[in-house]
Write a structure and sequence with these properties.
By secondary structure, the protein is an alpha/beta fold. Helix content is 28%, strand content 33%.
Length: 248
C-alpha cells in the first residue's frame, strides 16, 4: 500500500518530541459502470479491479461481473444490471444506489473456534500496526486465507476480497470474511448480497447490524481479539458453540 512520511510533534505524558510518521495515502477514483459514470470513491490504489467487481456485487447492482479494467483513476466495470437499476437509468437518466432487496444466505458452511482465532490473527497486519490508518479484510475458505486487502475504508476492504472471489470463480457461500471494521447494517447487507455466510470482526456491530444478520441467515462474530469472541447470530455455524443442528 502507498504510504508517505510526515513529521509531527508527539506529546506523551510530559515528554514532547519530534517524530517522522508513516501515513497511508488516499486517492479518488471514478467507477464507470457499463460506460456510464456511476460515482467517485475514496480508496487506496491497490486491488482496484477487485474493488470494482466487489462493489457492484455487494451493492446489489448485479449478481455477476463480465469484465473489469483500470485506466488511470477510472475503474471500468461491465456487468448485467438488475432490472430496477436499468429502469432507473432509463426513466431518470441518472445512476444511483439501486439495490435489490437482500436475500437470506442459505449456506451450510461451518467453522471452528480455532479457525475463528486463526482468521482474526490474519487481519491484524504490520501496516495496521505501523500506521493505525487502514482497515483490512481477508477471504478464507476451508481454513486457508485466499486473499487479503487493506484500504483506508472498511467498506472497500470487503468489496476487494469479495471482488477477488468473483473474479476467480470462488464459491462465496463456502467462504468466511474477516474484517477489522465495525459491522452495522449496511456492511451486513454487503455480505448477504455476496452470499457470504460467516463474518468475523475485531470490532463491534450495531443493533441493526445484528438484527439484519439474524434475518438474513448470517453468522456474525464480533469482538474477536486474542482469546475471545462473541457470536451474535446463527451460532450453529461455529462448531462447539451453538446447537449442532442447523435450524429449519
Amino acid at each position: 500500500m502507498s504510504t508517505v512520511r510526515y513529521t509531527g510533534i508527539q506529546v506523551r505524558g510530559e515528554r514532547i518530541s519530534g517524530i517522522d510518521d508513516t501515513i497511508v495515502q488516499e486517492e479518488r477514483f471514478t467507477l464507470i459502470l457499463n460506460g456510464t459514470r456511476f460515482l467517485d470513491m475514496v480508496a487506496s490504489r491497490e486491488n482496484l479491479r477487485e474493488l470494482g467487481a466487489g462493489f457492484v456485487l455487494c451493492q446489489g447492482l448485479s449478481r455477476s461481473v463480465d469484465a473489469v479494467s483500470v485506466e488511470g483513476n477510472e475503474i471500468r466495470v461491465s456487468a448485467p444490471l438488475e432490472e430496477s437499476c436499468e429502469r432507473e437509468i432509463e426513466t431518470t437518466g441518472t445512476v444511483g444506489f439501486i439495490c435489490r432487496p437482500p436475500e437470506p444466505v442459505p449456506s451450510g458452511c461451518i467453522t471452528t473456534i480455532p479457525d475463528v482465532f486463526a482468521i482474526t490473527r490474519e487481519i491484524v497486519t504490520d501496516l495496521w500496526r505501523q500506521t493505525g490508518g487502514v482497515h483490512c479484510s481477508v477471504l478464507a475458505k476451508d481454513g486457508e486465507i485466499l486473499f487479503r486487502a487493506s484500504d483506508v475504508g472498511r467498506h472497500n476492504t470487503v468489496d476487494k476480497v469479495i471482488g477477488y472471489g468473483v473474479l476467480n470463480g470462488i464459491d462465496l457461500s463456502e467462504c468466511i470474511v474477516g474484517c477489522t471494521g465495525r459491522q452495522p447494517r449496511d456492511m451486513v447487507i454487503k455480505y448477504a448480497n455476496a452470499g457470504v455466510p460467516i463474518v468475523i470482526s475485531r470490532a463491534a456491530s450495531t443493533d441493526r447490524g445484528i438484527a439484519t444478520a439474524g434475518e438474513l441467515g448470517i453468522t456474525l462474530i464480533c469482538f474477536s481479539r486474542e482469546e475471545r469472541f462473541t457470536v451474535y447470530t446463527h451460532p450453529w455455524r461455529v462448531r462447539g458453540v451453538g446447537p449442532e443442528d442447523r435450524p429449519r
